Amino acid sequence: MAISRILIANRGEIALRVHRAAHEMGIETVAVHSTADADAMHVRLADQAVCIGPPSATDSYLNMAAIISAAEISGADAIHPGYGFLSENAKFAEIVEAHGLKWIGPKPEHIRTMGDKVAAKKSAGDLGLPLVPGSDGAVSDYDEARKIAAEIGYPVIIKAASGGGGRGMKVCEAEESLETLMKQAGSEAKSAFGDATVYIEKYLGNPRHIEFQIFGDGEGTAIHLGERDCSLQRRHQKVLEEAPSPVISADERARMGKVCADAMAAMGYRGAGTIEFLWEGGEFYFIEMNTRLQVEHPVTEAITGVDLVREQIRIADGKPLSVTQDELRFTGHAIECRINAENPFTFAPSPGEVKNYHAAGGMHVRVDSGLYAGYRIPPYYDSMIAKLIVYGRTREGCIMRLKRALEEMVIEGVHTSIPLHQELIRQTDFLNGDYTIKWLEEWLAERD
User: What pLDDT, in 10s, does the model give residues 351-376?
Assistant: First the structure.
């Protein structure tokens, strides 16, 4: 039976994004929310709304039992997890399907495999994806670690097998600090993720972060939708993304895209996914796969014309991919600015009431946000409150349109990161597309 009512197990702009796609397909939506989000825009617009707990995410958006109960009492027949929260929780995906609901996401076994960094690396290598030189799996013995590090050469990076966001990661420049840093990384990983397992890789000095969007039908067919350059990061958190990358040629895109699509086809992957690489000196190195929709998916939508959320829903409903690889065309350039409720240069969170709000507009300007005047931004969740996405026929034209759109955007009552973006896109290195994952933090340090 076709999906007729989707419960959206998320909040903020992504919940609104899923609601809009569903309604355009004639599908009803159910919003779940904490008590802190009772006045959120997606709650106001959904066909039904169910409160699932107090403000704490642990007691609401991460409360599996409450979400399943909400699906049952609302008559939902599918669950879309958005990104973050339970979107990459294999156990939750299994519970959803065990209750006879459709999971709008990858197969639970693929979520589990790719959620474990060690298993993901092995699987990626088996599927033909290029790997960063390093250990074949987890490393617990110091002598083994010392041997591996000597073989691949210093510097090396020690990483937590579970989790991300920079926690449980240590760069080691020489053998004398390896043992100490291994213990520190393991301790951080245990504290943050409940798993002290670590592995070792060659540390790339100054790479770019480039990721490929893929889609599979779960039956052995998969396509890629090009790459996104997500190198502008602070503390491993993305700040601005663009597509296509300024440094990737059409031939490179086709070659690596095919490698990614072929790997996902062989895997029998279902739904949306992103394969992330470090790129340095013309070479790609697999780092991880995200088995969900990405925050930055709109830039891919802009240059391909494919609605990725609609595609997710279609695939979960057992329908084939709506576009073939040969039919896809990559046209123009798109940039996304993540707008956070925080001081633009100290990055201190700035929750509170939005006194005035005006979204930028005009041709090829998109704002994904649940903001409105009078809305109170709660202090309990991620600080991202909007995404500004701009498209142009050329990268230069896109940047000029973005400058104009940032000038138009009004969010009063709280601090936002808009001034940061306004400064950032005027820098010569950015204008030339000449930046790496270290560039933003180095620029911020010099600016101080």
Answer: 999 999 999 999 999 999 999 999 99
